[in-house]
Amino acid sequence: MPPMEPHYDLIIRNGTLIDGTGQPRFKADLAIRDGRIASIAAPGVLDAVRADGELDATGRIVAPGFIDAHTHDDRLLLSAPDMAPKVSQGVTTVVAGNCGVSRAQVRFRGRPPVPPLDLLDDEGGWFRFDTFHDYVEALEAGPAATNAVLLAGHSTLRVAVMDNLDRPASEAEAERMREMLDEALSAGAIGLSTGLYYEPARAATTEEVIEVAQPLAKHGGLYCTHMRNEGERVIDSLEETFRIGRELGVPVLVSHHKVLGRANHGRSGETLALIERTMRTQPVCLDCYPYDASSTILTLERTRDATRTIVTWSRPLPQYAGRDLSAIAAELGVTEEQAVARLAPAGAIYFSMDDADVQRILAFAETMVGSDGLPHDSAPHPRLWGTFPRVLGHYSRTLGLFPLETAVHKMTGLTARNFGLTDRGVLAAGAWADLTVFDADTVDEAATFARPIAPARGIDAVFVAGVAVWKDGAATGARPGRVLSREAA
Ligand code: ZN
Ligand code: CU
Questions:
Q1: Is residue 241 within 8 Å of 154, Cβ to Cβ?
Q2: pLDDT digit string (tens) for 432-455?
Q3: Residues lining ligand 1 (ion), CB within 5 A?
Q4: From the CA of 371, how far away is ligand 2's center (Å)?
Q5: Cα of 250 from ligand 1 centre, angstroms
Q6: What CATH architecture is 65-292+353-420?
Q7: Is 268 left (phi over 0), alpha (psi -120 to 50) or beta?
Q8: What global pTM score does this model have?
Q9: 334 C-alpha vs ligand 2 centroid, how far in Å?
Q10: Which of 30, 114, 389, 452 can bridge 382 by disulfide, Cβ–Cβ 3.0-4.6 Å?
């Protein structure tokens, strides 16, 4: 009798594999069964084997699906679950709940009254989960196209617990936040994020954060932070972050690392040296988005650091989304300061970094790629649709900042390792079949600051657990995503 023919759900043939570890590419066929990679075979070996689905990847790269290390997709996962801005870039997993803002454990009737919580909900009604467990349950009952990794946000906890945010938490309030964090971590959150830069958390002391974050150690959680200061006092903020990690005995993640403001241009040399030194004695991770412009809520303070400001949304004056603040002020016949007051609540893009710093940070061996995309802005920063292809196209292929294998590692294997996602981020037999097939010669962002909503070029097909979520330039509508948990190192 002939040996039993193995059955496969899908075979991707003739592709060039970049496996996510940083190792050089190689030619192989990839066979998938039950959502996982069943076999990686030398060319020819699977020629006689048939599968339910076949994909010819001649001339294409086959890589692990990209993991977006920094997102604000907490609501997008439910409200637009095909996740087009992400799967169109090759992203198969998003980390949500960043910068101190997460969506569960607090309720609002309408729009969240406290910026930057409104970044997660432009229309109101989406802060409706009393517990983190309820939110996870909703994601599991109505899954998205991508997988989700969730953080609980310290600012959300503060807003839920404190009547006045302009002071440090009392002992009783810290205790209540600690209980809520424990609930979130038990329900599936993998860590805590803070946004100490933002108003709802600015008055929180380092000690408050350490008090609230206690449950992280027991759950093997991660501490992620949009630091108190990314400009003049960036070194103090890094020291504060490292101290929090040391006192809690947990890994820290410096979110969207950058140096803001002209006076600080060039200081990434200093910050990276400190990060590198600290990494020898405690676990430190960092991510970065590949642009020299930032984006968040519109504040006067930030416009002062910027050479140019573009408004991304405005509640009272929505018609100005996508326009320069200077042009809006001229049209309204007011100063820029007055224009900011008229536009608020609003969001903006700020040109306040030096591309040399962006390149130095991106090229740093331990830096992961995270988009920090803001999915509900009317005229969003192009990082929402362009981050990953821009790293592959602009920074790797065009500028030659690092080889393609390194670029892929920064968005796959490195990220899966730092977040403790087992069997993800690498191509290996037994790993989940989260995959991106792309053209190394053409992959790049199509989004620009002037036209920020556009699917990337050169992304052919994207699979989550072996199911196509992006194909032929469109989302397929399949929603195989799961909420992923962290395996602590
Ligand atoms: Zn942030
Ligand atoms: Cu962010």
A1: no
A2: 999 999 999 999 999 999 999 999
A3: 99, 226
A4: 8
A5: 20
A6: Alpha-Beta Barrel (3.20)
A7: alpha
A8: 0.98
A9: 31
A10: 452
